[in-house]
Structure formats: C-alpha cells, structure tokens
Amino acid sequence: VMETAGRYWALLECGHTRVVTDVGMIRQDWHRLAPGLADFVIEQGWAQDDGSKIDFMRCLGEPAGQTKNAQKRWGRASLALAQQQGAIDLHYLRRMLADHYSENRDILPGNKCVLSSGFLIDLLRNEQPLIAWIAFGAPKVALYFPLCLAGELPTAFGEGIPASPSIQQRTQEMHKLSQGEDRAKLELMLERLQTKFDQDVDDYLTKAQDFTQHGKPYLVAQLATEMMEHHVELFDTEYRRLLGLEERTPNRL
Known about the structure:
- The chain is mainly α.
- 45% of the residues lie in helices and 10% in strands.
C-alpha cells in the first residue's frame, strides 16, 4: 500500500490483510519513505526526538471530520477481515462489501454517498487466467460480472446509447425496483444470475487449464469472449423480463 501527502509518500508491505480507505492510515508501520521526507519532517519540528520511527500520518495528515469517519470505517472493515482470517474468499468479500456499505451509511461523506460499483479480483490463481469481478450500483442490485482478461470485453460494459443502454445504465434502472413491490423478484433474479455466473467461471477455468495443457491456449481467449457475451445476453433477457419490456429479436436481412 502506498499513501501520499503532497510530494511525499510512505510504502507499507501487507502481511495477511489490509484495509484502505479515502484517507491515509499508515503510521509507523511503513517499510519505506520517500527520499527527503525524514529530513523535511525533522526540519519542521514534527518528528519526536526519542529515536522512534516517523509517524507518517501524525506528521503529514490533516485532522478533520472526514478523517475521523474514514478511520471509523477503516476500523470496522479491519475487524471484519480479522474475524474472517483464514477463510476469506470472493463470496465472503461480496457480502462484506455490501454489509460495510450498509452499516456505514451514517458516516459516509455527506451522508448521501451512493455506491457506484464494486470490484474484486483474485490474484492467487497464478496458473489460471486472470478474472476480475465488477458490479454496478448499490448492494441491493449488485450482480458481479466476471471479466476474463484473456477475452474481448463485450461492448455492453462501455458507454451505452438510448437504443442499447449499457450494463451500468440498466443496473441503475433496476435500483428503482429495489424500493418497490418487485423487490423480491429482483432479488431472485440477481441470485439466479450470480449462481450461473459463478458456475460458468468454474467451468471456464477448468476448460482453460485443459486447453493450455494440451497446447491449445488460443482457445482460451475464444472461450472467455463467448462466456462474457453469453452473460450479457442472460442479463439482458432477465432485465427485460423484470421490467416488462419486449424481447429483442435479431435483425434479419
């Protein structure tokens, strides 16, 4: 983790878990400091003259209400990870991010902050294709799409147009349903799609490993692209069914 203050920075090497937030949290647990920082702090008279390490945030941080609230959020998230130590996986992190957002609404900036997206990635599967998971919108409509970096990203994840709204725009429309009578239908839809996406990724990783071992790595990209396109189609079908829209029919010449 690297945190900055002006043109200076501090670097911390994470051990088991580490939470980051929108303010600096590195104190004396840094491993490296920016060149010249120690001399600058000493010249300003900010360092304690007792031989101890420089406290990065005590010396360079700016105390404010936002900082205190960020520290509270940092503490709550750190505790949640510590309690789950040894059993942290993607499924847990999805639930934790949703709970963390809901439980901290009272101390979010302006108390009106809206979660725009969630992003998770598993960096431990070195022998398998890299997959990132992204969800748009608040936890009530959070559906994590797998993004396989080996394939070609569907256009639906880009900027949408009125005739073909993006995944993000459609998710915003679904958020309106989370407050009304269709909330139960929405939850079932999200759960059904998420289960399908998770199963597809497991199958994809198994096939990708098999292709690689048998000298056919070029098929991995094709498989990834097809899976992501299929997920967009599944989401589009469920989205239209939920909102009572007409099914799309392919154009024929």
